[in-house]
């Protein structure tokens, strides 16, 4: 079985994972959003007019992981068994974001974890942009992947 996003005519196509074994799979992605120290302080003190930034971003990240196949072309719709998104203030000027995604299935969940982190960061940006348009979403990356034929990956 060849895993490729091209069909016999060279057109983009979803990979057929029908013959792959179901295995427990997990992915962890991380990233951060950097901002002015005053913006982080306002987030920590609950002084953002749109509400609890970290709670809303956590929910947005979870929802995004569940909808990844609607956002990323050729990505399989998956029945996820667990999604967590943690946002941790990192003084003086950042929020660290980590997403963990699990399932038992035929394809991995790396895209879902990466999407969760990215959308959580975008949500922080959206909720705080009125006071800090210079925020930067940085270092979004896969940090762990396990399960499936390719085995385990750990970022350095």
Automatic annotation (TrEMBL):
Catalytic activity: (8S)-3',8-cyclo-7,8-dihydroguanosine 5'-triphosphate = cyclic pyranopterin phosphate + diphosphate
Binding site for substrate: 74-76, 111-112
Keywords, comma-separated and alphabetical: Lyase, Molybdenum cofactor biosynthesis
Enzyme class: lyase
SUPFAM superfamilies: Molybdenum cofactor biosynthesis protein C, MoaC
The keyword Lyase is assigned to this record: yes
InterPro entries, A to Z: MoaC, MoaC_bact/euk, MoaC_sf, MoCo_biosynth_MoaA/MoaC, Mopterin_CF_biosynth-C_dom
Oligomeric and partner information: Homohexamer; trimer of dimers.
Function in brief: Catalyzes the conversion of (8S)-3',8-cyclo-7,8-dihydroguanosine 5'-triphosphate to cyclic pyranopterin monophosphate (cPMP).
Domain of life: Bacteria
Pfam families: MoaC
Pathway(s) it belongs to: Cofactor biosynthesis; molybdopterin biosynthesis
Protein name, UniProt field: Cyclic pyranopterin monophosphate synthase
Recorded GO MF terms: cyclic pyranopterin monophosphate synthase activity
EC number: 4.6.1.17
Domain annotation Molybdopterin cofactor biosynthesis C (MoaC): ranges: 14-148
Transmembrane segments: none
């Amino acid at each position: 079985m060849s895993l490729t996003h091209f069909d016999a005519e060279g057109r983009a196509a979803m990979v057929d994972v029908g013959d792959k074994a179901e295995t427990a799979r997990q992915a962890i992605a991380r990233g951060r959003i950097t901002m002015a120290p005053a913006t982080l302080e306002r987030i920590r003190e609950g002084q953002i007019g749109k509400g609890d930034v970290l709670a809303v971003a956590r929910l947005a990240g979870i929802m995004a992981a569940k909808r990844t196949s609607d956002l990323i072309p050729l990505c399989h719709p998956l029945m996820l068994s667990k999604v967590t998104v943690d946002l941790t203030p990192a003084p003086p000027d950042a929020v660290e974001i980590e997403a963990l995604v699990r399932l038992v299935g035929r394809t991995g969940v790396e895209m879902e974890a990466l999407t969760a982190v990215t959308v959580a960061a975008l949500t922080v940006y959206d909720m705080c942009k009125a006071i800090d348009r210079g925020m930067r979403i940085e270092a979004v990356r896969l940090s762990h992947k396990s399960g499936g034929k390719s085995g385990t990956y750990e970022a350095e």
